[in-house]
Write a structure and sequence with these properties.
The chain is an alpha+beta fold. The protein has 10 helices and 16 strands. It has 2 domains: 220 residues, no CATH class; 140 residues, Cell Division Protein Zipa, Chain: A, CATH 3.30.1400. The strands form 4 sheets. Strands 1, 3, 4, 5, 7 and 8 form a 6-stranded antiparallel beta sheet that branches. It has a 6-stranded antiparallel beta sheet with strand order 11-12-13-15-9-16, with helices on one face. It is elongated. The two termini are 26 Å apart.
Length: 368
């Protein structure tokens, strides 16, 4: 088990403690509500299946934590009604907890990348009524915040105008290349999230800050360890290349010149295989060295980014009259390139074991 997985288990434990405390409070509140209801309106025996119970009944797919079902009485016994209402509230919280504990792949909220925060709804929420308040909370610091909702059929999806949701899940990204989520950012998130929750009649179940900070630092350590970029160079064997002539050759080789001045090799699906630098300013007329750069964790191993980059470097060297060299201007032998390729494959295997495969949605989010 990796340190990252251990930290995520710790945050899950903190959420469990919070949910238990929340359920105790909800049980007390439910009992008081039942007592008031039967003293003032004895015919209203359906109140125990109110907002929390209705949500749980629609979305629940697994037994409760204690493995026992709470039978409905249909009578007016106060203790039984309170127990049923409390159990319904517990089911709603338990359902949200399960959502937070399981990774949600290829959705905006992913428990391995984000800190998931369940939002328990009082009643099912319509997308058109909640989407604007939720869109008001998109970032804390430089960490993105996303929301997903659970439909009546149990499936999770990004919040849509026409959707109807029985539960919501917020997620703030724990880390990126720049930094881990910090205490100030998390405090801001909690404050703003409570404001949003009040607007949409929801109750956030906020994890303990200490556990969240531990998970954030652990994830950022992973990002720092796997933030790898590989470069090879093409050095001119003679006179420097004219930039205008060079750009034309690069375009024929398949490079795109982006509006920001970057030269990139597209992967065919809207992404980037590798990039290229001329190592001179835009105002320069010539250059004698090109550098090709592979952002290793952002390219899927199936695309063989390293192999494609080396093939491109060799083609450019042959076309332009240059030599493929390392950063110290030493020619790269086939044996050296083969050894680097083996190291890249081992790198990919390690990322796969960590459940953050190179080029995946998770990796692209973390190494942005």
């Amino acid at each position: 088990m990796t340190d990252l997985q251990t930290s995520l288990i710790a945050i899950g434990g903190a959420i469990v403690v919070g949910v238990i405390s929340y359920n105790k409070w909800q049980e007390y509140k439910a009992k008081k509500n039942v007592e008031r209801a039967f003293s003032s309106a004895p015919d209203d025996v359906l109140m125990q299946s109110g907002a929390g119970g209705h949500v749980a009944g629609q979305s629940r797919h697994e037994p409760s934590l204690d493995g026992e079902a709470v039978p409905g009485t249909g009578g007016v016994d106060t203790d039984s009604s309170a127990d049923a209402s409390a159990a319904a509230e517990a089911e709603a919280s338990e359902e949200a907890l399960r959502a937070a504990a399981a990774p949600v792949r290829d959705l905006p909220v992913d428990s391995l990348v984000d800190c998931p925060i369940p939002l328990v709804l009082e009643t099912p929420a319509h997308g058109e009524k909640i989407i604007l308040p939720l869109q008001g909370l998109r970032h804390v610091g430089n960490k993105p915040v996303h929301f997903i909702g659970q439909r009546n059929d149990g499936q999770w999806e990004p919040i849509a105008h026409r959707g109807v949701y029985t539960a919501l899940l917020a997620g703030v990204q724990l880390a990126n290349r720049g930094s881990a989520l910090n205490e100030l950012e998390y405090s801001e998130l909690v404050t703003r999230l409570r404001q949003v929750a009040d607007e949409i009649n929801a109750e956030p179940e906020v994890p303990d800050m200490t556990a969240v900070m531990t998970a954030a630092r652990s994830l950022h350590q992973f990002v720092a360890e796997y933030d790898a970029k590989l470069s090879v160079n093409v050095q001119s064997n003679g006179a420097p290349w004219a930039i205008n002539t060079l750009l034309a050759a690069l375009e024929r080789q398949g490079f795109d010149l982006r509006p920001d001045g970057r030269l990139v090799m597209p992967d065919g699906d809207g992404g980037v295989l590798f990039s290229l630098s001329t190592n001179v300013t835009l105002a320069a007329d010539t250059t004698s060295r090109l550098t090709l750069l592979l952002d290793v964790p952002c390219v899927s191993p199936q695309r063989d980014g390293f192999g494609a980059m080396i093939a491109c470097a060799k083609a450019l060297a042959a076309r332009l009259g240059g030599t493929v060299v390392d950063d110290g201007s030493q020619p790269l032998s086939e044996d050296s390139l083969a050894e680097i390729a083996r190291q890249v494959n081992a790198f990919y295997e390690d990322m796969q074991v960590a459940e953050i495969p190179a080029g995946s949605v998770r990796a692209l989010r973390l190494f942005n």
